[in-house]
Design goal:
2 domains, 56% helix, Serine Threonine Protein Phosphatase 5, Tetratricopeptide repeat, 11 helices, single chain, 177 residues, mainly alpha
Length: 177
């Protein structure tokens, strides 16, 4: 009885955000389930009520192998949700450097901006994800001086957050306040 109640609760929660079974499996890194869904023709780019795709979920959770399965079946690497976030931004915010690297190697736009004008680098700076920042600033073409709609940049975020390690990395990469 308890397992039935847990299953029903999970269904109600996923119904609230409109997650598909593929999205839930991707968020959990359940690769065998993901493979099964993809084999049965599930739309790999279907969005939930917030515009998230299965790749957004995998990226946020840091499951590179899951992301690989999704991209191999046509997942859009720069799929944006309802607020303009990409899978790269989700991964960078969480500090999943291997995922960030994988997404960029598969065509993710390192300078993509969300609806507030924030980039993956800015989110990594806010969340103090030093290893992710070190990787991002090494990517050819990254704009280390990008400013959001409210005038913030990755280096200004590091300054306001009193994070000297990130400040040094950004300065060494050419960022200026």
């Amino acid at each position: 009885m308890r397992s039935v109640l847990i299953l029903l609760a999970a269904l109600v929660v996923s119904a609230c955000d409109g997650n598909t079974p593929l999205m839930n499996a991707s968020a959990d890194g359940a690769n065998e389930q993901v493979k099964g869904f993809l084999t049965n023709g599930i739309d790999v780019n279907e969005k939930n009520n917030y515009g998230w795709t299965a790749l957004n979920h995998a990226a946020r959770s840091g499951y590179v192998e899951t992301a690989k399965l999704l991209i191999e079946k046509g997942a859009k690497v720069d799929a944006v949700d309802d607020t303009g976030w990409t899978p790269l931004m989700r991964a960078a915010q969480k500090g999943h450097t291997p995922m960030v690297k994988f997404l960029i190697e598969n065509g993710a736009d390192v300078n993509a901006v969300n609806s507030d004008g924030w980039t993956a680098l800015m989110w990594a700076s806010l969340r103090k994800k030093l290893s992710t920042i070190k990787y991002l600033v090494s990517v050819d073409g990254i704009d280390v001086n990008h400013q959001s709609k409210d005038g913030r940049s990755a280096i200004l975020i590091a300054i306001t957050e009193n994070n000297n390690d990130i400040l040094v990395v950004l300065q060494d990469a050419g960022a200026r306040p």
